[in-house]
Write a structure and sequence with these properties.
About 25% of the residues are buried. A hairpin with a 4-residue loop joins strand 10 and strand 11. The longest helix has 7 residues. The chain is built from one helix and eleven strands. The chain is globular. The strands form two sheets. Strands 1, 3, 4, 5, 6, 7, 8 and 9 form an eight-stranded mixed β-sheet that branches. Strands 2-11-10 form a three-stranded antiparallel β-sheet, with no helix packed on it. The two termini are about 15 Å apart. The protein is mostly beta strands.
């Protein structure tokens, strides 16, 4: 795990962050929601297909606001990029990621366990920034 002094601009009360995810097929960039209300990092089946050559991982179910979803648990590398996507500001390997198997699920979430809880975050609504220290 490593990070640089990092700061992102907030747009309203929700923050999407550009992240580069890596699996056995190589890297794939998505816009993920910074979600302190999500206990897990959760990604769509579309992202899983972009990251991995074949089916694998551990079948499991997770429960969220939308109910229970069948998932595959895999470990990935997560690199958080600058707002313009040109610089890696945070990097964490062996992040547990849950890939929802339903094609209806099309949301990418950075959750607390195994990712957000590894860093000290500062959310400044009046200043309009999210930063890590």
């Amino acid at each position: 795990m490593w990070f640089k002094n990092a700061q992102w601009t907030l747009e309203g009360h929700r923050k999407r962050i550009k992240v580069r995810l890596s699996g056995d097929k190589g890297p794939y960039i998505v816009s993920a929601l910074f979600d302190t209300g999500a206990s897990k990092c959760v990604f769509s089946k579309r992202v899983e297909s972009a990251l991995f050559n074949k089916a694998g991982g551990t079948k499991t179910a997770i429960t969220g606001v939308g109910g229970e979803e069948e998932t595959r648990l895999r470990k990935i590398k997560v690199e958080v990029l600058s707002d313009d996507g040109t610089e890696v500001l945070l990097s964490q390997t062996q992040v547990e990621a849950f890939f929802v198997q339903s094609r209806k699920f099309d949301l990418e979430l950075l959750g607390v366990e195994t990712f957000l809880d590894k860093f000290c975050w500062k959310l400044d609504y009046p200043g309009g920034t999210l930063s890590v220290e």
